[in-house]
Amino acid sequence: VQLQASGGGLVQAGGSLRLSCAASESISSINVMGWYRQAPGKQRELVATLTSGGTTTFAHSVKGRFTISRDNAKNTAYLQMNSLKPEDTAVYYCAAFRFGLGAAEYWGQGTQVTVSS
Q: What whole-number distance in Å separates Cα of residue 34 and Cα of residue 101?
């Protein structure tokens, strides 16, 4: 599965962006879709995950501001980011995880999000 992340850009603090993660094939067998980010000089960190059953997890720093969703019919996952802060500036990566027999993980190429103060 190839993942293509898009939707990043430059936004002022308090603004919103929606990131998309388009998969090259069906994601119906993907157990978890996730978004991660990496700021300059920092390690990559989890932002949000969404299981095929609908369970979500969020980093404490984005709870209440970000939402994650997936549209299996469009083979796409989304990250809606509201009330953006300068500390949200990072390269955002989408990932897909398949567990069990044929377990695998897939990563997109990243999309830059820059939040100006």
A: 20
- In sign, the C-alpha dihedral spanning 74, 70, 78, 26 is negative
Question: Is 92 exposed, middle or buried (CB count within 10 Å of its CB: 0-12, 13-18, 19+)?
Answer: buried
Type and span of the H or E element at 4 = strand 3-6
In angstroms, what CA-CA distances link 85 with 17, 73, 89, 106? Answer: 12, 32, 8, 28
pLDDT digits (tens, 9 = 90+) for 43-95: 999 999 999 999 999 999 999 999 999 999 999 999 999 999 999 999 999 99
Q: What are phi and psi of 86, to 5 degrees?
A: -55, -30
